[in-house]
Amino acid sequence: MQLAKEVKYLIHKEVLLEWRSKYTINGILLYVVSTIFTCYLSFVSLGDKLAWNALFWIIILFASINGVSKSFLQETKGQQLYNYILASPAAILISKTVYNIVLMLVLTTIALGFYTMVFDTFTPPDLLLYYVAVVMGSISFSTVFTMVSAIASKAGNGGMLMAILSFPIIIPVLILLIKLAKNAVDGLPWENSYDEIGMLLLVNVLTVATSLLLFPYLWRD
Amino acid sequence: MNKIWWKILGSMLVIYTAIAGLLLGVPRLPIINESIRNLYFHVPMWFAMIVLFSISVFYSIKSLSTKSETDDLKAVESVNAGIIFGLLGLVTGAIWAKYTWGQFWSFDPKQNFAAISVLLYFAYLILRNAIDEEQKRAKISAIYNIFAFPMMVVLLFVLPRLKDSLHPGNGGNPGFNSYDLDSRMRMVFYPACLGWIIIGYWVYTIRFRIRSIENNQQHN
């Protein structure tokens, strides 16, 4: 019960901090929109629906790396110490992950809307399944990148390390996501996608479990 | 004699498989033909790599609780030895692919996933180089190592089964099961796996000893 209270408090703190500055959400939003617009200007029209799908995931991948890596890299030493005194490591990790999931859900939903508006030729016939893939993507990117950004921030060498460490880990997830999204683009029935959805859930449970086990060791200096 | 028997065993097994693997009879299967012999030289590399990476994860977990420098050195040296076997596995696979599929690298899912899992361990080594303070390095790299290991298992054993691959054993191509029916191949394949795992472990112990001597010299 103590944990739930701490998590609730920490999430409230994160949202409040974000609401005051609105830096991350506006920054990433502008990032996504301008990337999509740049892609639109350079491609004008995409050749086929496979390219449509791949381009969307690449944009989301980079946006989420930038967005989620903020969570630990941005904090100062003092803030970390303050959190360390106040809350248990598990509560900190869970609150950051949940906050990132919510943030990514908002961002990817807006991005998907804008993307289908700009590149409207290949809008998937099964938009609901595509949205399920996007939701799964937001969750998976958040769980993986939160832990990796914690590792990168402790190593004290921000941006580049974040990219190197997270890419090999995220590629298997990304492949599953693109396959799931491709099913939606091709308009296959839902039964064909249960395998991928199950695998993604499994990978997420695995990631969260190992993160929860390892984070206390990482947190303690 | 007590300590070196396994080294002799490993060397004898690898010499035996090198000779027997090239000379003994093999079943004639369509497409792969004589290149089936690569089974003796390609697959054991992956087994050795997996064993070495598992040793590394074991010592990473241990070093988190004991905080001893020895455990950290063991973890990094087994990764170093494992990467050698991973690269050898990629190379032997690529040479085989040149003669069977026509290209060294044809973006087969198995090739890609194997390459990514080797990248994962290169990232581990770069992470180590990025941190100067020894205890901090031991702790953070151990955490990344443990975090990455389940992903490598997913990459190498789960994902390739979801994708269409030309690799033997996938998508209706002849694979392990049809080889296993042939006892002549089993006579060479199992010793080859055991032999290469032992050689890999040997490489790891030598590297670890060199590293710990260097480490002692630095401290004194």
TrEMBL record, chain A:
GO biological process terms, alphabetically, are: cytochrome complex assembly
According to its record, how does it sit in the membrane?
Answer: Multi-pass membrane protein
TM spans (from-to): 23-44, 50-69, 90-115, 127-148, 160-178, 198-219
Q: Does Phosphoprotein appear among the keywords?
A: no
What Pfam families is this protein classified in?
CcmB
The record's listing under InterPro entries reads:
Cyt_c_biogenesis_CcmB
Kindly state which keywords UniProt assigns to this record, in alphabetical order: Membrane, Transmembrane, Transmembrane helix
GO cellular component terms, A-Z: membrane
| Superkingdom field | Bacteria
- Provide the protein's localization: Membrane
Q: Which GO terms describe its molecular function?
A: heme transmembrane transporter activity
* Family according to the record: Belongs to the CcmB/CycW/HelB family.
Name listed for the protein in its UniProt record: ABC transporter permease
From TrEMBL, chain B:
Q: Which GO terms describe its biological process?
A: cytochrome complex assembly
The record's listing under Pfam families reads: Cytochrom_C_asm
Transmembrane spans: 12-31, 43-61, 82-101, 113-131, 143-162, 187-204
Describe the family membership recorded for this protein in Swiss-Prot or TrEMBL. Belongs to the CcmC/CycZ/HelC family.
Membrane topology qualifier: Multi-pass membrane protein
Question: Major location, coarse class?
Answer: membrane
Q: What does this protein do?
A: Required for the export of heme to the periplasm for the biogenesis of c-type cytochromes.
Check the record and name the PANTHER family matching this protein.
CYTOCHROME B_B6 PROTEIN-RELATED, HEME EXPORTER PROTEIN C
Domain Cytochrome c assembly protein, which positions?
35-159
Query: Coiled-coil intervals in this record?
Result: none
InterPro entries (UniProt xref):
Cyt_c_assembly, Cyt_c_biogenesis_CcmC, Cyt_c_biogenesis_CcsA/CcmC
Q: Does the keyword Membrane apply?
A: yes
Tell where it localizes: Membrane
Statement: the UniProt record of this protein carries the keyword Membrane: yes
Entry GO MF terms: heme binding; heme transmembrane transporter activity
An annotated GO cellular component of this protein is: plasma membrane
The protein, known as: Heme exporter protein C
Q: Which UniProt keywords apply?
A: Cytochrome c-type biogenesis, Membrane, Transmembrane, Transmembrane helix
